[in-house]
Amino acid sequence: MVSRAAILALLVLVLIPPITAARDHHGFRATLTPIQQLSPGKHSDAVRRDSHRIALLSYAATAVSKATTNSSVNVQALLENIQGGYNMNLSIGTPPRTFPVTVDTGSSLIWTQCAPCTKCFDLPDTPPFQPASSSTFSKLPCTSNFCQVIPNSSRSCNATGCMYHGTYGVGYTAGYLAMETINVGESSFPNVAFGCSTENGADNSSSGIVGLNRGPLSLVSQLGVGRFSYCLRSYTDAGESPILFGSLANLTDAKVQSTPLIKNPALTRSSFYYVNLTGITVGSTDLPITRTTFAFTETGLGGGTIVDSGTTLTHLIKEGYAMVRQAFVSQMGNLTAVNGTQFGLDLCFGTSGGGELQGVPALVLRFEGGAEYAVPRRSYFDVVAVDSRGRPAVECLLVIPAREDLSISIIGNVLQMDLHVLYDLDGEMFSFAPADCTKV
Ligand SMILES: *[C@@H]1O[C@H](CO)[C@@H](O)[C@H](O)[C@H]1NC(C)=O
Ligand SMILES: *[C@@H]1O[C@H](CO)[C@@H](O)[C@H](O)[C@H]1NC(C)=O
Ligand SMILES: *[C@@H]1O[C@H](CO)[C@@H](O)[C@H](O)[C@H]1NC(C)=O
Ligand SMILES: *[C@@H]1O[C@H](CO)[C@@H](O)[C@H](O)[C@H]1NC(C)=O
Ligand SMILES: *[C@@H]1O[C@H](CO)[C@@H](O)[C@H](O)[C@H]1NC(C)=O
Ligand SMILES: *[C@@H]1O[C@H](CO)[C@@H](O)[C@H](O)[C@H]1NC(C)=O
Ligand SMILES: *[C@@H]1O[C@H](CO)[C@@H](O)[C@H](O)[C@H]1NC(C)=O
Ligand SMILES: *[C@@H]1O[C@H](CO)[C@@H](O)[C@H](O)[C@H]1NC(C)=O
Ligand SMILES: *[C@@H]1O[C@H](CO)[C@@H](O)[C@H](O)[C@H]1NC(C)=O
């Protein structure tokens, strides 16, 4: 069992002057492709990757408390489980070279492997970027604001420039900051700061990441994009999904629901996308969710619910999960329970006769401001094992309990499928509407 990616956790000071003026924007678009299929038999791998990723999200939060008691410190993490997510093509340099990099709403840095490598993942289709072959490449000096936002503990400066390094658990990445012309879809942007990683440890899974959180180094921050949206097609469709930036990221559907993007009071400039999950209905049961169930914990470092592109399943903190589980169990009492451990999941049922399970209760999530999400069935309850004739044998709830030591709840990408979701950074709102992603 190999780990899936290299990691860099960055603590980022926020009392830094704004780095970029907003650039002039017409919208632009690109396409996303799923890195892996979530087909029957693949769920336990997905859960394992999720668990690494959540450990990192949590590590990022606790690192704040350990690093300093100064609450103006912000957290970014370059995360694991990039194989559970989606790739987007980023073309870098002049002439441009194309890299499929993982879109990550949980991290900030844009990075790719750069030659000459001390140690790089061996990716036959995507050899490392060659800075010497690009006429627009330049290294960033340590005095640059981009370098200064990387915390002291994760950077060092020498004649090479602004060196960053991050290590966590089994993953590792290190390199230096540089500037390049970056193309996304049909649009070209000069002077974008990115990480040239020359040392990557522990896995061979990706040529890089494009960070989309609110941190100053992220693509959306650097390009001054006030909003972005995506619409993930179901894993079973295996097709391309759209991602839209700037004015093109516009949700005009009549059924659009909106809820504020909220701040963790202890991490006021946190770069995660937190929403306020206020209620859950399972079938006929309105669960007794209170304002404390998914609230931030008293220390402020835990709790809360984030929307994340790179986590596969949906993870709810213990108390909230227990209510959800209880409601499903009591409404599916006539079905045959199956131990979900072998699938990495918790609540599973055997199907009889090879058909889809009947009588699975509906799941509705409610958010601050009255936004409601009636989750499509295959986004929360799906086939995880088939019989010898390829017919459904076991179906499971794709919502699982968060690890005990990690108190954050995460809305993963499976739950976001067939939904057009909009991150309105300027308006501090998260909006969504059911959609046919092939028509967005
Ligand atoms: C990314 O680029 C490669 C090669 O340039 C192309 O084959 C692939 O279809 C592109 N993928 C997406 C999602 O646009
Ligand atoms: C927090 O850090 C900032 C920047 O390093 C500093 O200006 C501020 O005084 C610090 N606040 C506290 C309470 O230490
Ligand atoms: C980084 O931190 C170390 C120890 O905490 C300190 O000695 C050093 O001066 C700091 N460097 C910068 C550039 O702030
Ligand atoms: C700068 O530091 C990095 C990592 O610490 C090292 O690999 C590199 O050789 C150094 N460059 C110079 C010019 O000293
Ligand atoms: C790359 O990773 C895959 C699984 O993620 C593994 O099967 C393969 O052996 C790895 N290759 C190398 C060269 O490490
Ligand atoms: C979104 O579309 C609506 C209707 O087409 C338009 O009125 C509005 O200005 C657009 N918003 C943005 C940010 O482009
Ligand atoms: C499920 O199976 C695992 C081992 O395969 C076992 O440890 C666990 O106790 C079982 N759970 C239940 C509820 O039987
Ligand atoms: C279980 O009960 C539900 C209604 O409560 C029904 O729709 C479903 O068909 C039943 N399933 C089985 C296997 O009997
Ligand atoms: C979440 O929404 C509820 C209900 O509107 C409110 O009482 C609570 O303070 C909100 N929590 C946060 C962290 O904003």
Automatic annotation (TrEMBL):
InterPro entries: Aspartic_peptidase_A1, Aspartic_peptidase_AS, Pepsin-like_plant, PEPTIDASE_A1, Peptidase_aspartic_dom_sf, Plant_Aspart_Prot_A1, TAXi_C, TAXi_N. Residues 1-21 form the signal peptide. The keyword Nucleus does not apply. It comes from the Eukaryota. One of its GO terms (cellular component) is extracellular region. Residues 86-433 form the Peptidase A1 domain. GO terms for biological process: proteolysis. One of its GO terms (molecular function) is aspartic-type endopeptidase activity. Keywords: Aspartyl protease, Glycoprotein, Hydrolase, Protease, Signal. Pfam families: TAXi_C (PF14541), TAXi_N (PF14543). The active site is at 104, 308. Belongs to the peptidase A1 family. This is Peptidase A1 domain-containing protein. It comes from Leersia perrieri. The lineage of its organism: Eukaryota, Viridiplantae, Streptophyta, Embryophyta, Tracheophyta.
